[in-house]
DNA sequence: GCCGTTTTCGGCCCGACTGTTTTCAGTCG
């Protein structure tokens, strides 16, 4: 549903970047940026809006509405084409390097003739950057480091991008009369935070109509391979899609094989071999005495995943656990965790409104939350130390009055008034205890000093946990997938502090963060830490990101009982009382 | 380019940090 909006948002953002790169008016660029964000997060599909409807989107005026209309009818934006003609595409990628903004990118392009990240890397290695006016050795070093960071993303797609694409393909291919079943597999089904390519599996007697349908999808730009069992294409976003078609009776074995992970499959195959069996994407086979060359032996399971696991003496293992991190031993012992699910979540405890940097007003966020059937919902706008949000005591208290008034309007859903505090370098937060005591809930997060050393980071997070008014540590490592490394912190000390003080760690569901990550969750739960799976929504559409957070939680083996926002309101309120100071 | 109990021009989120400067520009959240 939101794909068109995202697409248009990306184009508007590109206009903004190109305006900055060409030295255009910064306010105009910001205006496009704002419109890009607003369009991306808007609840209604752009295709359903008329000109007036478009202008009702905050930040979209006559000019931008015209460009959107132009794009919907012609597939182009003349303004964008004109700007693109002035700047080689690689220059915009240079701007994506952390610490490199439009001014620096334009300078490098103009003075050195560098127009791709690779050329920039070469220039940096030849020490040609330091000669530029205003650029010294430190800056050159930061650029080198920034390129490494950008490249370490490895061209992998974020989970939401891959998921939306996969769901569209599964819907298209699955709707064909020739198709029996269709689903995505691979690391996407395991809900890994980033996805290298998308694996889609289908069953059909005749694969051709399915393969044809894939290659004809509008966002497919290149067909890399087209055969009867496998077709690979590349999409406009650069992501590779593999569609595999297998006979209906092999669905289960193929799903196991293509879901992986590799390590999980190896462990399964080893188990099969021990039992005199052989596991492949075509099924589980009993090896016959003379069947050592070519002959597969008797097929004993392949139709469903359950059947394949059962034939190996195992219960079905949820895809999010299939990483060879002890799931097979746990399955054998009957100790697989009863994983938390989206349906278990009774409320979101970290969300924003347009009082700070959210896109939607309080009323709209609450309406969207109520529609999800939540039993409670916390509004946690930014606190004043994040200066750009211009929060004041008065604004926060006025919002509280508004929250209390609106709370009465929702029968089944209690609205909690909270805030997202900023943990400063010393572990202090924005407001004094007396003011903090007025909130129902406080999330506290790191938004500054990302490069402070390990001792500083550890101390500030532990101190935040020790604050009796802090209930949840938001996005604890502050990583941004493919863009920013996690802070350097002794997480074991933080886990211990959380367990000791009754502070929950967030599993931030934003596809750009997914923080904490799975392995950290596994480590933290061994300390007895509680968790909160939150969306950090800045728009109504972001509330749907919950499933990515739940995916991360499952990958960390979490059960509902370990997640505070699966609890009843009564139990949650008890948790929020924390213990008194000292 | 957007927006208006400051409406049709003149503002536009603002402060901290970093590195390069020798008083400030660029980037970030």
From TrEMBL:
GO cellular component terms, A-Z:
cytosol
Localization per record: Cytoplasm
InterPro entries per the record? DNA-dir_DNA_pol_X, DNA_pol_lamdba_lyase_dom_sf, DNA_Pol_thumb_sf, DNA_pol_X_beta-like, HHH_MUS81, Hlx-hairpin-Hlx_DNA-bd_motif, NT_sf, PHP_dom
Where the record annotates domain Polymerase/histidinol phosphatase N-terminal, the positions are 347-425
What's the protein name?
Answer: DNA polymerase beta
What SMART domains does UniProt report for this protein, alphabetically?
A: HhH1, POLIIIAc, POLXc
Enzyme Commission number(s): 2.7.7.7, 4.2.99.18
Alphabetic keyword roster: DNA damage, DNA repair, DNA replication, DNA synthesis, DNA-directed DNA polymerase, Exonuclease, Hydrolase, Methylation, Nuclease, Nucleotidyltransferase, Sodium, Transferase, Ubl conjugation
| Molecular function (Gene Ontology), one example | zinc ion binding
Where would I find the DNA-directed DNA polymerase X domain in this sequence?
A: 3-323
UniProt keyword Transmembrane, yes or no: no
Q: Which domain of life is it from?
A: Bacteria
- The chain positions of domain Helix-hairpin-helix DNA-binding motif class read 52-71, 92-111, 127-146
Q: Which cofactor does it need?
A: Mg(2+)
Is Transmembrane helix included in the keywords of this UniProt record? no
Q: What does this protein do?
A: Repair polymerase that plays a key role in base-excision repair. During this process, the damaged base is excised by specific DNA glycosylases, the DNA backbone is nicked at the abasic site by an apurinic/apyrimidic (AP) endonuclease, and POLB removes 5'-deoxyribose-phosphate from the preincised AP site acting as a 5'-deoxyribose-phosphate lyase (5'-dRP lyase); through its DNA polymerase activity, it adds one nucleotide to the 3' end of the arising single-nucleotide gap.
Entries under Pfam families matching the protein:
DNA_pol_B_thumb, HHH_5, HHH_8, PHP
Gene3D superfamilies for the chain: 5' to 3' exonuclease, C-terminal subdomain, Beta Polymerase, domain 2, DNA polymerase beta, N-terminal domain-like, DNA polymerase, thumb domain, Metal-dependent hydrolases
Its catalytic activity? 2'-deoxyribonucleotide-(2'-deoxyribose 5'-phosphate)-2'-deoxyribonucleotide-DNA = a 3'-end 2'-deoxyribonucleotide-(2,3-dehydro-2,3-deoxyribose 5'-phosphate)-DNA + a 5'-end 5'-phospho-2'-deoxyribonucleoside-DNA + H(+); DNA(n) + a 2'-deoxyribonucleoside 5'-triphosphate = DNA(n+1) + diphosphate; a 5'-end 2'-deoxyribose-2'-deoxyribonucleotide-DNA = (2E,4S)-4-hydroxypenten-2-al-5-phosphate + a 5'-end 5'-phospho-2'-deoxyribonucleoside-DNA + H(+)
């Amino acid at each position: 549903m939101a794909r068109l909006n995202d697409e248009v948002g990306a184009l508007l953002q590109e206009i903004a970047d190109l305006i900055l790169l060409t030295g255009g008016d910064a306010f105009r660029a910001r205006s496009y940026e704002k419109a890009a964000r607003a369009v991306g997060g808007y609840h209604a599909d752009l295709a359903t809006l008329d000109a007036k409807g478009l202008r009702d989107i905050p930040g979209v005026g006559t000019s931008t509405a015209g460009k959107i209309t132009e794009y919907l009818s012609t597939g182009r934006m003349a303004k964008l084409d004109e700007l693109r003609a002035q700047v080689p595409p690689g220059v915009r990628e240079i701007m994506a390097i952390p610490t490199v903004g439009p001014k620096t990118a334009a300078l490098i392009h103009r003075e050195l003739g560098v127009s791709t990240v690779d050329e920039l890397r070469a220039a940096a290695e030849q020490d040609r950057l330091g000669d530029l006016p205003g650029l010294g050795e430190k800056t050159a070093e930061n650029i080198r480091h920034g390129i490494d960071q950008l490249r370490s993303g490895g061209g992998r797609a974020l989970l939401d991008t891959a998921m939306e694409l996969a769901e569209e393909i599964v819907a298209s291919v699955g709707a064909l009369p020739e198709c029996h079943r269709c689903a995505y597999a691979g690391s996407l089904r395991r809900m890994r935070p980033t996805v290298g390519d998308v694996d889609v599996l289908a069953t059909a007697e005749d694969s051709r109509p399915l393969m044809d349908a894939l290659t004809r999808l509008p966002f497919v730009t290149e067909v890399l391979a087209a055969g009867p069992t496998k077709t690979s294409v590349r999409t406009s976003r650069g992501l590779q899609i593999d569609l595999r078609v297998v006979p209906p009776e092999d669905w289960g074995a193929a799903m196991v094989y293509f879901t992986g992970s590799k390590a999980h499959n190896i462990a399964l195959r080893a188990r099969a071999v021990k039992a005199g069996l052989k596991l492949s994407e075509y099924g589980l086979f009993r090896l016959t005495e003379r069947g050592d060359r070519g002959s597969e032996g008797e097929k004993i399971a392949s139709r469903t995943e359950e059947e394949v696991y059962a034939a190996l003496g195992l219960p079905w293992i949820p895809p999010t656990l299939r990483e060879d991190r002890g799931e097979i031993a746990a399955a054998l012992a009957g100790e697989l965790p009863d994983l938390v699910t989206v349906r278990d979540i009774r409320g979101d405890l970290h969300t924003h409104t347009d009082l700070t940097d959210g896109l939607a007003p309080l009323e709209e966020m609450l309406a969207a939350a109520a529609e999800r059937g939540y039993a409670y919902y916390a509004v946690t706008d930014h606190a004043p130390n994040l200066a750009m949000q211009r929060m004041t005591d008065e604004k926060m208290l006025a919002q509280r009055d508004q929250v209390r008034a609106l709370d009465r309007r929702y029968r089944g859903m209690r609205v909690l008034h909270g805030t997202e505090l900023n943990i400063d370098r010393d572990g202090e937060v924005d407001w004094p205890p007396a003011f903090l005591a007025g909130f129902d809930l406080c999330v506290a997060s790191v938004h500054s000093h990302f490069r402070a050393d390990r001792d500083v980071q550890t101390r500030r997070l532990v101190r935040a946990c020790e604050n009796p008014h802090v209930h949840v540590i938001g996005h604890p490592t502050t990583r941004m997938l493919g863009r920013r490394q996690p802070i350097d912190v002794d997480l074991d000390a933080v886990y211990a502090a959380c367990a000791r003080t009754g502070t929950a760690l967030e599993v931030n569901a934003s596809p750009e963060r997914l923080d904490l990550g799975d392995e950290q969750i596994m480590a933290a739960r061994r300390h007895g830490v509680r968790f909160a799976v939150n969306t950090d929504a800045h728009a109504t559409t972001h509330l749907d990101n919950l499933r990515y957070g739940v995916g991360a939680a499952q990958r960390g083996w979490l059960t509902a009982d370990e997640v505070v926002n699966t609890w009843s309101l009564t139990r949650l309120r008890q948790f929020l009382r924390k213990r008194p100071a000292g």
